[in-house]
Amino acid sequence: MSTLLSFRDVWVEYGDRIIIEKLDLDIAAGSFVSVVGPSGAGKSSFLRLILGQEAPTRGSILLDGVPLKPECGPDRGVVFQRYSVFPHLSALRNTMLGLECAQSPFTARLFGRSRRKAEEEATAMLEAVGLGHSLHLYPAQMSGGMQQRLAIAQALVKRPRILLLDEPFGALDPGIRADMHALIRGLWQEYALTIVMVTHDIREAFTLGTRVLALDKRRHDPHAPHRFGATAIYDLPLRNRTEPTPPSITIDAIGNN
Ligand SMILES: Nc1ncnc2c1ncn2[C@@H]1O[C@H](COP(=O)(O)OP(=O)(O)OP(=O)(O)O)[C@@H](O)[C@H]1O
């Protein structure tokens, strides 16, 4: 598999506070990377770096070998745990909005043939995530699982190559989570996505990922906790490409140091 994203000696610092230090890793196209680590380790910061919402204070991030642009392009989509969808828009309008913004950045409105095309694409995407019968429902009329399906449709309708998931299933019941796991693995394969998912659920990380990346501090100074940042302390490739469960770990590949 070819390298899609490369982190080269990446640091994130706020003033004298180091959040991420010396991060060196490659992410292969088509991989499903689960990112785990304690609270505050910098997992969301890691996603923001890929999204282009945040720039490294030192080091570089390359996409296809070219430095990542500082803004979020259509090649990257994101789904958060909550509040990804607009409450005042129906499922269909929520999903169309991304296409409207991309094609008509000033008014976010399309007309005639281009509007019909966007409507068809949004409808097909909603069908792909299992919301084909809920096109005209508003988020308040949907369950948490349905809202997350909608958020995924909204992210995927622009056909990103990279899908970033920040604890996307954290607020869902266990039964719904299992359905969402099956959905996301199906979409990952069908749309040939590269997925980077932050999760606090270690089982979810191993069930879904082709690779589990653990971010944490390698060094601690109890008198100055801000002095050291997190980095990839474990980087585990899994033999987990097509079968959802059970995952298996290649023991010889533990650690990247
Ligand atoms: N804009 C900012 N200014 C200063 N500190 C920040 C800023 N954004 C994040 N941080 C700090 O960076 C650290 C990492 O935050 P981040 O949200 O990436 O952690 P996380 O691993 O995703 O945490 P959690 O699992 O609790 O969501 C935290 O200590 C946070 O307070």
TrEMBL record:
Recorded GO MF terms: ATP binding
UniProt-listed SUPFAM superfamilies: P-loop containing nucleoside triphosphate hydrolases
Alphabetical UniProt keywords: ATP-binding, Nucleotide-binding, Transport
Chain ranges of the ABC transporter domain: 5-242
PANTHER family: SPERMIDINE/PUTRESCINE IMPORT ATP-BINDING PROTEIN POTA (PTHR42781), SPERMIDINE_PUTRESCINE IMPORT ATP-BINDING PROTEIN POTA (PTHR42781:SF4)
Stated name of the protein: NitT/TauT family transport system ATP-binding protein
Organism: Novosphingobium panipatense
